[in-house]
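Structure, all two chains, one model.
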Amino acid sequence: MTTPASAPTTAPRTPGALASLYRLMLSTQVTRARVLSLVALGLVSVLVGLAIGRSGHADPLRAGTRFVFVFGLSVLVPVATLVFASASLGDPNEDGTLVYLWLRPVARWKIVAAAALASFSVTWPIVTIPLVLSAALTGAGGTLVAATVAAVTVSVIGYVGLFVALGLRVKRALVWGLLYIFIWEGFVASANSTAARLAIRSYGRSVLTRATGETLRFSEISSPWQWLVPIVVCTAGLAYATWRLSHQDIT
Amino acid sequence: MNAPVEVTDVSKWFGPLVAVSDVSFRIEAGVTALLGPNGAGKSTMLRMLCGLTAPARGTVRVFGGDPRRDLALAGRIGLVPQQEVVFESLSAFEFVRLAAVLQGVDDPDGRAVAALAVVELDPADPRPTASYSKGMRQRVKVAQAIVHDPDLIVLDEPLTGLDPRQRLHMIGLFQQLGAAGKCVVVSSHVLDEVERFGSRVLVMVQGRLAAEGDFRAIRDLMDDRPHRIRIRSDKVREVVTGLLGEHAVLAVRIDGPDTATVDTAEVARFRHAVAVVAQQVGARLHEVTPLDDDLESVFRYLVGR
């Protein structure tokens, strides 16, 4: 019986540590149940897009824009991002495996960054592919497709930061996240334009309507802010998660 | 000269629950066993040694630094946590290799293979750890804790779930690591387990440090205390009368027609005497059971003395 030979411990090379954490986060987030349920939700959007296209709507761009907002940016994108992002650090925090990442000489921001990158890279295709398909099937043309990609990307960025932090901060983050999505964003933030600015969906909606030239309620956020605010929200969420990871008890 | 681990006046509470109360000790190189019943505060203390939680009061120093704040210290610590769960989608090799990569060691593949060999697991086993038995998971946890050759190895109930042969193997490994100059801290609530470590012992009870020192001294202390034993025999009165005559018991209480409870200060002498007396009076012994030999009562004695 021998113990491993002594070797000097050096600081982990950033690509190695970050890439390993990223791969781990991907493997722990992507479960069959999550993917299948969200793919099924995406298929619904494809079917609705097809129905809009077949209905011979007088203004397919307007109908398609409304659909992408009402179903895509208001339901599919936030829910899918919540499912993956809140689990990225929330699951290991709750099941006790976080200790295997925490008790390593790895900067906390790298753990959080890996969680966020993994969440983004699994969520983005799962929501973008069906929404792009449904946008194309509405018959609204390339404008709506490009607008959908841009709006979804902005929204996912904002939600990832928010929900990675939420997963680390609260137990049952899925429930709290759904309350945020449907009560705050769906109800409270629809009250007036000021409240709407406190909802991530407003920025995705603004990107969508500016690109398509359509008008939706509370979609008047000006150009730099509709891009910047979700990035700021994401950065702030990840910064909070990093701080939280450094200061919270690890079980 | 500073000890590798120095705990000074440390307390920790969770709301109204006091988990650790005003504990101080030093841990030198070698194997140190942290002994105590469930709920004694052992895991909380080990978590503080690793920086996983901060003491509410007092200081914890590991190699002169604060394990809660000094990120580099994590490279010198290996932890086997109490919880069974590991990253279940990974194979044992992937899990241990991940630990090696995050520790920044050279040749993480080779180190992972070596660490798994130490705990007698097959690095080529492709199965995810989700399919592993409790004992196999325990060994994977040990492998990830030693893969980077840490100076302080903290093991929280590491023998749980292992079969007797694996227990012996692990105890040998801990002793080997201690002999190699590592600081090995092992928690357990099983007295016999700790005895096999042949080590220095810290005894925690109800969040306090009840005793510390060489295990044999503490064991002698435990053996010297009064013991209570129940006897069941077809001639119980004759047996206890004979034991009193042999001065093998201090007190006797008759509990029923065939049952008595006796107190003795010397267990070994009692064991010998009870057999002799039973033979002398022609009695059948149905039961001779220590009533207070469990760890809880030993700890109660240590705290109350």
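Confidence is low (pLDDT under 50) at residues 5-10 of chain A.
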